[in-house]
Amino acid sequence: MKPVAVALLAVWAVLSAGAAEAEWLTDLAQAKAKAKTEKRMVLVDFTGSDWCPPCLNLDRNVFSTAEFGNFAKDNLVLVQLDFPRKKKLSPQLQKANDGLAKQFSISAFPTVLVLNSDGKQISREEGYRGTGAKEYIASLAKLKGK
What we know:
With 146 residues, the protein is α/β, with parallel strands linked by helices. The chain is built from six helices and five strands.
């Protein structure tokens, strides 16, 4: 009987982790419209997802955690604007990402912007300081009232 209970617990853990996985959009205009309708903030992650060590650490330590996924589900619309070196983006997506990088004067990866539900920028953080999900979420929660 114990192996069955352990197996069920393992399946539950996998399903719970998957349920918390955050949904990332690639279209900022779509994200802003969704945020306005749902009264949520927009978190925009300018990343080099396949080559940038701080970007990879931010994703692993914060964005990929169940804790962040649960917070994002109720509070954020997530946008990933990727600048990969190995994987190919469609020409349209590459052009859109390049335009947004220019618009927001992105010079370092990762750069994370937070916009309020009206699309106004309320936070900008360049680099990743190694914080865990709990601390990162706490700093985002403080921005909710702005």
